[in-house]
Amino acid sequence: MSVLAYLLLAPLACDGGSDDSKDTEDTASGSGRDFSDFVSTTTAYVGDQTCIGGSFGDVDPSKQVDVTLNGEVRNFEDDEPVPDATVKFWFSDDISASIDVEETADANGAFSTTVPVCEPIGYGTFTPPEWEETVDTYEVHQIFGYEEDGVASEWVNSVSRATANIIPAVIGVEWDETTAIIAGTAYDCATGTDGESEFFGHAQIFVHDGNGTPPDATTVYYFSDLDLPVANETQADVNPGNGLWVAVNVPTGTWTVEMWGYDGAEYVNLGSTILTIKPGSVNISNIFAGRTDGLGYPDSCLAE
Hints:
Blueprint: E1 21-22, E2 66-75, E3 86-90, E4 101-104, E5 110-116, E6 121-126, E7 134-142, E8 151-160, H1 161-171, E9 180-187, E10 204-208, E11 219-223, E12 229-230, E13 244-250, E14 253-262, E15 267-277, E16 281-284, E17 287-288
Parallel strand pairs: 2-8, 7-16, 9-16, 9-17
Antiparallel strand pairs: 1-15, 2-5, 3-4, 3-6, 6-7, 7-8, 9-13, 10-14, 11-12, 11-13, 14-15
């Protein structure tokens, strides 16, 4: 599998969402850029949108329990274990808050701890800066499924410095390491917790401050049929075959990341998430159809 193929992460579930729409004349003030700098395609989006505005069941509170997590830190590029990495968990799902658990992986990348299931949490993986092997890697809005035996086995991502540098290098841009990279996939309603992944095609990603103002230097790129990010002149929107996108030079702070599609008449908000960004980091974050908070609960968490 290629270096960048690992952007295609395992899906969670569809959730209820917004039917917001927007036309090209909506603008954001203050940054010198607006909505149309991110969303401008006139190619109609393709993909299953039947879950947008729908309901997907209630979480069963009795399944929101603590379990033993037998985890493993793996390299995002090749799935190889990352020895001696530090793993931090935020049970609040807020990486700006206090850390709840910190563990150090062994020589095989393995660690064990206790985490809540059926609730959103965040994690980060780190190695000492002097090693110059990895960059700080974060995933938020992670929801582990309910386990009847109270034991879960999951792996967490660590992005190597080489991989972090490949993405902007392939596009031909320079990554300012006082900012961050966000890499993700655009999933449609056919994607489920236990099923095959399906992607929105021809959607576009809009990054803004929650009030419609985008960051000055951030640019979003999409991936070709070769699973490589390319200039927007070559691939202007999400490829239906892989759903992959990447935002480069995202400043620190809290940002809303939205997925928009053109339905032939207007732009429709297909889903969104909210991320807190730290400098010099890679953030792995998918967007799922109909979800406005980035949360998707596995079927095992839902009330029967």
